[in-house]
Amino acid sequence: MLEINTSKVSRWDQHGRAHVVHVVRKGPQRTLRCETCGWRRAAQFLPWLKAEEHLAEAHQATVDPTETQRE
Asked: pTM for the whole thing?
């Protein structure tokens, strides 16, 4: 069976630029890596929330691209 060990959190900033944080799983530990600035952080709990917080604070990227697709 195929095991998925990576996911991503994408947000857009007010200028329409996309910012992505990758979440990589190795056992119970998750590692976050920002494509834009190279920021890295280990996160065992709530890694996607921490990724969203980084995008909002560091890049002012708060627009969820999946929200526009649901309308």
From this structure: 0.84
